[in-house]
Amino acid sequence: MDIFDVFVHQNLQRQIAETRREGAKTDDLVDELVTRMERLETVNAALWSLLKQKLDLSDDEMKGAIRLTRERAHTAPSCPACGRKLLVRNAPNCSWCGESLIG
Ligand SMILES: [Zn+2]
């Protein structure tokens, strides 16, 4: 092994270590997202349970509302701050990031 091989080997070792660190960061991010998604699923289930009881709504009405929201999302404008599609037309704030949409 000559000096060039040693240099290449060290460079590869650094790249491998960096790739492992990036992979660990990605794993952490995925874990956070899964935890957040599970929390949101729980909140959604609780909200839907309350709405059914308090407002006497049916599952079909909920499915219709979901379908309508999905259809509107395709043509909805995007938030100027975060770029995501706005879920509610004429809402004062972005549902995603909270950016004020008035003015
Ligand atoms: Zn936004």
Structure characterization notes:
- This protein is mainly α.
- The chain has a domain at 3-57.
- Helices cover 68% and strands 0% of the residues.
- It has helices at residues 3-55, 59-75.
- It is elongated, with a radius of gyration of 24 Å.
- Bound molecules: zinc ion.
Key features?
103 residues, mainly alpha, 2 helices, 68% helix, 0% strand, elongated, binds zinc ion
Number of strands: 0
Write the element-wise H/E pattern from the N-terminal end onward: HH
Low-pLDDT ranges: none
Rg from alpha-carbon coordinates = 24 Å
| Number of helical stretches of at least 4 residues | 2
Helix-strand category: mainly alpha
What topology emerges from the helices and strands here?
Layout: H1 3-55, H2 59-75
The structure holds zinc ion.
In short:
The protein is mostly helical. It is built from two helices and no strands.
